[in-house]
Amino acid sequence: MQMKTIKWEITEETARITFTRPEKMNVINTEFLEELGQVLDKIAKKEVRVLVLTGEGKAFCAGADIIEMTSRETVRQVLYFNHMVNTLLNRIEDLPIPIIAAINGHTLGGGLELALACDFRIAVRGAKIGLPEINLGVIPAAGGTQRLPRTIGITKAKEMLYMGEPISADEAEKIGLLNKTVLPSSLEAETEKLVESLLKKPALALSMLKEAVNQGTQLDLRRGIRYEGKVFALLNDSKEKEEGIRAFLEKREPVFK
Ligand SMILES: C/C=C/C(=O)SCCNC(=O)CCNC(=O)[C@H](O)C(C)(C)COP(=O)(O)OP(=O)(O)OC[C@H]1O[C@@H](n2cnc3c(N)ncnc32)[C@H](O)[C@@H]1OP(=O)(O)O
User: Fold this and answer.
1) Atom of ligand 1 nearest to the CA of 131
2) Tens of pLDDT, residues 99-154
3) Model pTM?
4) Is the model's pLDDT at 92 over the cut of 90?
5) Which segments does the entry list as coiled coil (predicted)?
6) Which of 41, 190, 219, 234 is the most buried (most CB within 10 A)?
7) Which atom of ligand 1 lies closest to the CA of 105?
8) Which residues line ligand 1 (CB under 6 A)?
9) Nearest CA owner, ligand 1 atom 14
């Protein structure tokens, strides 16, 4: 289905959202956020098990629309927009399914913050990856100062944030910001391969795993381990555990429905 800033497709088990303003580097504006939120509502109502986010053109997403940014004159207008962006990115981070950012090109500012809210990041070689906000006299405001250090460590995060210099996809993979870099011609196939692998995993256990890891980044070690234990216990009488154990004993691959 084509909307003004994105198009989306939901099949039996997967959903795919494509940002469709390549001429504007798929920048984040109010309309984009509203449409993304509408599609997340649709996905939440289905038994979708994997979501792929990708873009058309040379950029996955070049960040917040700088032109629209200049129209936000009062602190309140900025606070409202930040609330809108972060509500959406937190929804993505909390969606109880694996989300893949299939990074088709430059991923800067809010675009990288969007990708950081996803579970996997596969990028094409040649993509510029960074948080250049400091060079605009501002700082990231969609989680970049929080998720980036938690993802790659404070040392490289401060370097990326303070210098505002984009890095290459290869460098981003090296520092653990990306799962993989691929040739542009392979992005689709590599993404589908990851989707297929994830669809073979137990959906409930994957959701619980995401929940435990995400909550763990916000808890101290002991509370995180306690949280993990409770999530583990919830799976104890699941059909997925039954199948997993039975498949092991019968020396065969498990089939998680
Ligand atoms: C809380 C969050 C804050 C933020 O995210 S702040 C924004 C952070 N993002 C950036 O600073 C990235 C800015 N954009 C760029 O650096 C470059 O673009 C690219 C590297 C992405 C691509 O460069 P190239 O291939 O030379 O294309 P081009 O001529 O710069 O851009 C094509 C058209 O796209 C518009 N555009 C690009 N990025 C943005 C943006 N972030 N906000 C608004 N417009 C943008 C340009 O202006 C231009 O438009 P026209 O063709 O009309 O001249």
Assistant:
1) 8
2) 999 999 999 999 999 999 999 999 999 999 999 999 999 999 999 999 999 999 99
3) 0.96
4) yes
5) none
6) 190
7) 21
8) 24-25, 27, 58-59, 62-67, 106, 108-110, 128, 132-133, 136, 140-142
9) 62
Nearest CA to ligand 1 atom 25: 58
- The residue to mutate among 31, 58, 66, 124, having the most atoms of ligand 1 within 8 angstroms of its beta carbon, is 66
Structural domains of the chain ordered from first start: 6-199 (3.90.226.10), 203-249 (1.10.12)
Strands of 6-10's sheet in order across: 6-10, 14-19, 50-55, 99-103, 120-124, 180-182
The pLDDT value recorded for residue 44 is 87
pLDDT confidence of residue 98: 98
Catalytic residues: 113, 133
Which ipTM did the prediction report? 0.95
Question: What distance in angstroms lies between residue 59's CA and the mean position of ligand 1's atoms?
Answer: 9
Q: Which atom of ligand 1 is nearest to the CA of 141?
A: 1
Q: How far is CA 75 from the centre of its chain?
A: 28
Pocket test for ligand 1, best of 21, 23, 25, 65 (most atoms within 8 A of CB): 25
pLDDT in tens, 16-75: 999 999 999 999 999 999 999 999 999 988 889 999 999 999 999 999 999 999 998 899
